[in-house]
Prior knowledge:
This protein has helices at about 5-25, 25-30, 35-45, 50-60, 75-80. The protein is an all-alpha fold. Helix 1 (about 5-25) runs parallel beside helix 4.
Amino acid sequence: MQGWIRRRFARQAQLMGAMMDRIGLEPGQAAAHPQALAAASRRCLWCPAAQQCGHWLEENCQAQRAPEFCPNAAYFESSRGG
């Protein structure tokens, strides 16, 4: 696998995990629907807002929900049962 794609996978996985942590979404909740989680992972992998996401995560230690720019905001909310 090319180095750039490996780095992107690692960065985006880290951002997605950090986002779930910040909004209080447990991994088990996110994994309850494997197909939806796979789609969310793909959205995150190719998200054009990675830099904005990183800045948001640095500025927010805890939040009620994902920011509006996040393409997975609705998925995260529905996974929490909200």
